[in-house]
Amino acid sequence: MTGLAITSEAIVVMTGALVASGVLIGLGFWFSRIVLSVDEPSKRQSAGEFVLAFFVNKAREIAHGENRQRIIETVAPLLATFFLFIFVCNLIGVLPIPVFNRPPTSHFSVTLSLAMCSVIGTLLAAAAFKGPLATLKHLVWPNPMQWVSEVTDVMSLSLRLFGNIAGEFMTVTLVMQVVPYGIPLILHALGLIPAFVQALVFTLLTSSFIADALHEQKRRPKRTKAGQPVDAMPSTTHAEGGFAQ
Amino acid sequence: MNGVLLALVTVLPIAIGAAVAAFAMKQISTSAIDGMTRQPEIAPQLFTAMLIGMALVEALCIYTLVVTLVMANNLG
Q1: Which ipTM score applies to this complex?
Q2: At CB < 8 Å, which residues of chain A contact B?
Q3: Do B65 and A167 touch (CB under 8 A)?
């Protein structure tokens, strides 16, 4: 929560984020050089397909309507990027390097920018698939304060990730000052669980935001076709908006 | 005096917040496990819903942690 100054903390965090990006880009190149085969898939191909299938299935769950394929092709890489980047960033904490083993996600600026990417990406996806006007209308209709939910989404996403990872990092650091050997290993092993779960939660919440932003337009015409009164619509959409937080 | 004040405004809120969040999480996980044992075929969907619910509960606890950290920074 420092200002714009380049502090040593910021340098550590930026190095960590760069290392994480470098690891992911390297893995991407390594995986892209597989000889693909249907009959005898290599181990690398199976592993890559396992990861890819998870995100494609997630995107398939939230995509409906006529441009379903395009939604899947847009959303799946976004979700995969969020998950892999946050996961690798969280794992930097277990590296046995003295100063640089601070997870970048334990700095609020990193999680805030990730959360802003998520929410702005959601709005952009909604603008691309529903039209910009419908997206803007969704921000102020039926509830004129609907746009507040986007701001609170940013706050809750970023604070959740930051709190979890920073809390775990602080605990390990404090314990390490008291007992430098043995116990921190157990804490690191336990820390792998929140590292995975928080990356997954960030991804799942992003996918549910995107699903909420995309689905509204599909449901509305269905209800009016069914002959229900127009007055019934705002209350239902309002309930959905409330759930999105 | 300062130590007592620090304890009151930092340690007590995070303790209460964590306890209440733990209670809510217990409720969520119990219900989810109940559902999963009754209908194992929808276990993945229930697991996803459980994770999202837990994340929403946990966010409240994290807000307490953040407020606590800010208070601790301001006080000393």
Answers
A1: 0.71
A2: 156, 159-160, 162-164, 167, 197, 200-201, 204-205, 208, 245
A3: yes
